Amino acid sequence: MKHLTSLFFFLNIFNLFAQYPLEIRFQPDSSVYSYQINANPIEVHTIVLQNIAVVNTGQNSLEINRLTISAFKDSVEIQTTTIHQGKIDSYANRLHSIQEAGKLEFLEAKLQTKTYLENIYFCASRWVNENNAIVITTFPLLFENLPDKIVVSVFGYDNQGKEVVSTNEIKVIQYKSNNQYSFPLKGTWSAFGAPSLNSHHRWVGIQEFSYDFIKMDKNGNSHKKDGSKFKQYYAYGEDVVSVGDGKVVSVINAIEESDILLQSEDSDEHWMKVKALQNELMQKGFEYVLGNHVIIEHANGEYSYYMHLKTNSITVQVGDTIKKGLKIGELGQSGMSSEPHLHFQLSDSPDILKSRCLPIVFSNIGDKNWNILYGEIIKTDN
């Protein structure tokens, strides 16, 4: 009878948790990469949790009360952040509104919902019904001591007032490539976009550690005259070179360039043009967003991307085996580009929509052995 009672108790506990399954899912799901933003006098590292989904896979509605994000190093908790009800409601309503407006497809590169939230409905508040989810997006964290894992816990209640708790964790990796790469341009350049927390690149996993490079004069201008034509920009037509030995796996060379975003106007009109151009390019296909580009496969499953190149300037073909420093094309204004610049990134796949962007350190920019920051001036050694 004693064993029967224990078994009955165990089954009731099991049913309690089985009745209210609440899952925490990450995307990317295997690990999160850090990015060092300072070296001296102390090291400072940043992490961005791109997508944290709280999914109700049960049959009962649950109210999410709070969510905690805790950092651990050697099993010791070193930092905890709590997201309370009001902020949870805000996250929920934002994605719910986008889904209701039929615009979710335009954010797939960011949210990756087809990868880990297929056929999931996004609820409008912290009340999560069956097969509903709330997604916490682009959550930044700053550390002096880099943790080795992040633990996310969610606390909620069912409609009977019983507490429901779920926890999941993700590894933190300070990614360092075994390959040696050189800078993709020659001379002096400015990092117009970088993986700093104040840069738009950092908020999308597939381009999280990418760069936009422009060229400026001594007065900090990137163009001559009024900058309304792409040929007025100092960077336009500059040679782009391979960062390392490898094999060319993708080339797009014939997309026309446009100066529509360079015309002088007020801010509101400019952003209307940006949205219109983005919609137009997305409807044609994501390769049109990238513009003319080259993708090169390197050792250890890494791929370098060179985007927005000048029309018909690419000098390599798919299948070519090339050496570090070889000219592959010229900097241009194709695709979704606000002004002539090189968008460069290192990734783990030749399919950008299924890839993870990787941190990269260049070997030929002086004694700097950590990461480039937003607005930084880069001078190559050759």
TrEMBL record:
Q: Which Gene3D superfamilies match?
A: Glucose Permease (Domain IIA)
The record's listing under Pfam families reads:
Peptidase_M23 (PF01551)
GO MF, one annotated term: metalloendopeptidase activity
Superkingdom field? Bacteria
Query: Ranges for the M23ase beta-sheet core domain?
Result: 284-347
What InterPro entries does its record include?
Cell_wall_metabolism_enzyme, Dup_hybrid_motif, M23ase_b-sheet_dom
Tell me the PANTHER family matching this sequence.
MUREIN HYDROLASE ACTIVATOR ENVC, PEPTIDASE-RELATED
Question: Mind telling me what this protein is named?
Answer: Peptidoglycan DD-metalloendopeptidase family protein
Q: Which organism is it from?
A: Acidiluteibacter ferrifornacis
Native organism taxonomy: Bacteria, Pseudomonadati, Bacteroidota, Flavobacteriia, Flavobacteriales
